[in-house]
Specification:
It contains 14 helices and twelve strands. With 416 residues, the protein is an alpha+beta fold. It has one domain. The strands form five sheets. It has a four-stranded antiparallel beta sheet, sandwiched between helices. It has a two-stranded antiparallel sheet with strand order 1-2. A two-stranded antiparallel ribbon has the order 3-12. Helix 2 packs across helix 10. The longest helix has 24 residues. Bound molecules: cobalamin (B12). The site of cobalamin has 37 residues, from helix 1, helix 7, strand 11, helix 10 and helix 11.
Length: 416
């Protein structure tokens, strides 16, 4: 699916962005109390060694016994299954099977201390010819790139300029337990950002190991689209580096590539799938015309809505407005934004032995936008009627959990 039928994209950025250089990423759309995000003079690039997953390898504060059990649950059967719906053997079985394809890539170059897709780019690629095929003007080339990526299975594709600020200062080498150069070649001027929708039924069963299948499936599908699109660019004689969670921060790139707006829960909310989407990116030197950030009312909506912060079990999501505070060593410095506390978030994952996405489930933008009423709701969310819309949809029971045992029986009592 590319764009669900009838769920046309909202307008490109409007007057609120006027005056910003077209490829600048320095300030988000103005909300009631100021921009949703802002890059400050005190900005510091982030080192991947410090993200909370890697700290679970080297930092005793994060590397708890629960964290060890969490990672082990992806590789080996748990010693005992929890007696809770969604955390049994069949739930872990489907979760780990969904991760299988991307795990094959992740583990392929372990001996060289590379972890394709997570701590280093996807590397299973052939060299291309030295002669370059002419794809026409940058606008024509952009249209062709989008067509090819969608044909390979991308649900969303956006294009932006390469921006060094979002590249990690170092990648983490787990075996050596040290930071190493990211190694992204110079001269890659553009980024193709790919979005992969996550399965809504699975996501809505969270908290459960079953919901983790949506994560694994998203990554496994991403690996296919990223590798195939990058290989196609190489076959045309261009350079292309496909990247999943490694190398650079996906969120600012996805925003700059016009795929969505930044939300209170620290995720990009897309018009097509809300936050229920995973991103990958390809760095390339093919000259491309870039997309512009979009605005469809998310910032102001999130200023009013507290669904995610209220529902987050460890209280990791901010209740207040965007702030420029580095919560701990796992957050980037010098960006004023809504910031999720990664330490708190991950400690809950470790506790339940699965990744959590409750914030994604309860987000009012987690809807099936192929339905007219949800497209209408999305429009209302961008108006003064947003408060009423929020009240209404809460009353109607949107965002509630789909019971894992019902998912297994093919039953679904969620409001449509
Ligand atoms: C590490 C990580 C986490 C960690 C820890 C973050 C940390 N602080 O260490 C934790 C455990 C919190 C986590 C949780 C989740 N994650 Co995560 N995570 C990542 C990962 C791999 C790296 C991000 C990173 O280095 N963060 C460290 C620093 C920079 O974090 P930070 O300062 O808090 O900044 C965060 C945001 O504010 C934003 N950000 C950073 N700089 C800037 C600058 C600007 C201008 C703006 C607007 C935003 C922004 O990105 C950061 C995301 O962690 C990214 C993939 C990637 N390469 O980007 C996925 C990613 C961000 N996660 C994603 C998802 C979906 C989730 C979960 C729902 C889990 C799941 N089941 O998939 C939850 C959601 C929690 C939440 N509400 O944020 C998606 C987001 C998709 C989307 N729609 O936006 C990503 C992009 C993965 C992907 N391939 O799609 N994640």
């Amino acid at each position: 699916m590319i764009h669900p039928r009838g769920s046309e994209r909202p307008d490109r950025r409007g007057a609120l962005f006027a005056g910003l250089p077209s490829d600048s990423c320095d300030a988000g759309p103005s909300g009631v109390d100021g921009p949703a995000w802002e890059v400050l003079e005190s900005f510091e690039r982030f080192n991947q060694v410090d993200d909370v997953f890697n700290r679970a390898s080297w930092d005793p504060e994060v590397a708890t016994e629960e964290a060890r059990r969490f990672f082990a649950s992806y590789r080996e059967p748990l010693r005992s299954w929890r007696n809770a719906s969604g955390f049994g053997q069949r739930d872990y079985a489907i979760r780990n099977a969904a991760w299988q394809v991307v795990d094959v890539f992740a583990e392929m170059h372990d001996a060289e201390d590379l972890r394709d897709g997570f701590l280093s780019p996807l590397s299973q690629l052939r060299d291309g010819p030295s002669e370059r095929f002419d794809l026409g003007s940058p606008e024509e080339a952009s249209a062709t790139v989008k067509q090819v990526a969608r044909t390979f299975g991308a649900d969303l594709v956006g294009l932006c300029a390469h921006d060094e600020r979002w590249v990690y200062t170092e990648r983490y080498a787990r075996r050596a337990d040290e930071g190493r150069p990211v190694g992204l070649p110079d001269g890659l001027t553009s980024v193709v950002v790919i979005g992969q929708a996550m399965d809504r039924g699975l996501v809505d069963t969270v908290p459960s190991a079953l919901s983790g299948a949506a994560t694994g499936l998203g990554y496994s599908k991403d690996a296919l689209v990223l590798l195939a699109t990058a290989q196609w660019l190489r076959n045309l004689g261009y350079r292309a580096v496909p990247s999943l969670n490694d190398t650079a921060l996906a969120i600012p790139l996805a925003i700059q590539a016009g795929l969505g707006e930044y939300g209170r829960h620290g995720m990009v909310i897309t018009p097509e799938f809300g936050p229920r989407v995973r991103f990958g990116k390809i760095f390339t030197d093919l000259p491309l015309a870039h997309d512009q950030p979009i605005e469809f009312g998310v910032t102001r909506f999130c200023e009013q809505c507290r669904r995610c912060s209220n529902a987050c079990p460890p209280g990791a999501i901010p209740d207040a407005g965007p702030v420029a505070v580095k919560l701990n060593r796992s957050s980037i410095g010098g960006v004023r934004k809504w910031s999720v506390d990664g330490e708190k978030c991950f400690s809950y994952w470790a506790q339940i032995a699965n990744d959590c996405m409750i914030c994604m489930r309860v987000c009012p933008y987690n809807k099936d936008f192929s339905r007219f009423r949800h497209r209408l709701g999305r429009r209302l969310a961008a108006t003064r009627l947003r408060g009423m819309m929020l009240w209404l949809e809460e009353r109607m029971g949107y965002g509630k959990r789909l019971r894992p045992r019902d998912w297994w029986k093919g039953r679904d009592d969620r409001p449509t």
